[in-house]
Amino acid sequence: MARSLKFNIFRYNPQDPESTPHMESFVLEETDSMTLFIVLNRIREEQDPSLQFDFCCRAGICGSCGMVVNGRPSLACHTKTKDLPEEITLLPLPVFQLVGDLSVDTGSWFRELYDTVESWIHTKKAFDPTAKEERMENEVAEAIYELDRCVECGCCVAACGTARLRPDFLGAAGLNRVGRFLIDPRDERTEQDYYQIIGNDMGIFGCMGLLACEDVCPKHMPLQDQLGFLRKKMGITALKSFFTK
Amino acid sequence: MSVPLTANHKSLQCHRWDGVLDWAQMLSGAGLITFMWMHMILVASVVISPSVMNAIAGFFESTGLAQVGGPLIFLLFLAHFVLAARKIPFRLEGQKTIWEHAKLLHHTDTWLWVVQVVSAMIILVMGAIHMWVVLSDLPITALKSAARIQSGAWIFFYLLLLPLVELHVGIGLYRIAVKWGLAGRSDRKGLKRGENLLTLIFITIGVLTLIRFWFLKG
After folding, report:
1. Hey, which of A101, A179, B37, B88 would disulfide with A52, CB 3.0 to 4.6 Å?
2. What is the predicted pLDDT for the residue at B155?
3. The domain B18-215: what is its CATH number?
4. Which domain does A230 fall in, by range?
C-alpha cells in the first residue's frame, strides 16, 4: 500500500511585505520512483501554484534544485522519497540569498566567488583561434575533469560550519575551483599567486575540517582529498615565504 | 588576449601569517597529544606499582623536565587555546548559528567539532587548575597524587576531566589527519573507528588509574 507522505515546507516571499516566514504542510500519496522533484511539481500543480522552487535538468546536472531535506542539503531531483521517512521537512539552502520559499540565488554567490578566485586560465600567451589545442597528459586531463564535475548546487557551502560563521569563506566549491586551476598546466599562476587567493582564513586555512561538504556532495566530489591537498600545498608555500622573506 | 596574472582585489593581500598560524595550531595540538600520551604512561604506571610511577616521576624531576617542561607545557596549552580559539565563535549570534546548524545537519563530524570546542573551554579551566596544583607541589609522587584524589571532591574533578581530555585528544588527532590530507577519503572510516577505539582505551586506562589512586594508602 502506498504511503501517505507529509511535507513540511518553508514558505516566505521576501518580495511580499505581507509575507512572514512559516512552515506549511502538504500531504501526497507516494508513487513509484517518486523524487522530491516530482513531489514539488505535484504540489505546485495540484495544491498550491504559488510554491517557489528551482529546477531545470531533473537529472542532477544543473544543480538548481539544492535544498535542505530533513536537515541535509541535497538535490531534490536526486532524492527519492522511498529513502525518506513519512514526514519530510524541506528548507531553502542557508548562506545564499532567499528568492522565495525553497528557491535561493546561488548564481550571484558563485559569480562573486569566481571573480574572487579568478576562475579562468591565466596565461601570457596570446590566444590563436586557428592553432591546434595544446596537448596535455591524459591523467592530467582526467584529474582536471574530475574537479570540473562540480555542478555548483551549493550543498557543500550550505553544509559547511565555517561558511555559516564566515560569510566571506570560499567554501569547498570555491577551493575545489582553485584546485582545478592549480593542476592545469595551461595556467601560469605560481603557488604564491594561489596563496594570495586562498592562503588565508577566507580560503583554505578557514576550513575547520568538519567535512560535511564531503558527506553531502551529490556529485561525490573528492572534497576531503582536495582540501587536504590544498592545505598541504598552501601550508608549505606559507613556510617557504615565511623563511625566505 | 593576455590576462593579468593576479587582479588587484582588495582581499588579495599576502596573508603569510594565516598559514603560519594554521601550522602553529596543528603543531601545538600534535605536541599536546604527544604530551598527553606520555602523561598517561606516567600516571598509569601506578597501576603496575607505585614505585614504577615514582621512578618515572623521579626521572623527570632529576633531569629538570618536570621543573622546566611543566611550565613550558602550560605555555603550549595556553598557546594552543589562543590559536584554536581563532575559529571559535565567542559571540552569542555565532554560537546560536553553529548550534542550530549542528542540530539540523545530523552530521557526526560537525557534532565532534562542537564537542571539541565545549571540551576545550572546560579543559582550559580544569587543566589550568590541575597543572597549578601539581606544579606548585613538586615532586610528583604516587602517594601525593593518591592523597589528592582521595581528598575533597577531586575524584569527581578527575572523573570529568579525564573523558573530556581523551575526547578532545582523540577528535583532535582525527581532525589533524583529515584536515592536512594525512588520511584520504578511503581511510576516513577506518581512522574514525581507530580513534574511537583509542579514546575508549585511554579512558579505560585513566579510570583504572583513578581507581588505583583511590585505594592507594600510605
Report:
1. A101
2. 92
3. 1.20.1300.10
4. 117-244
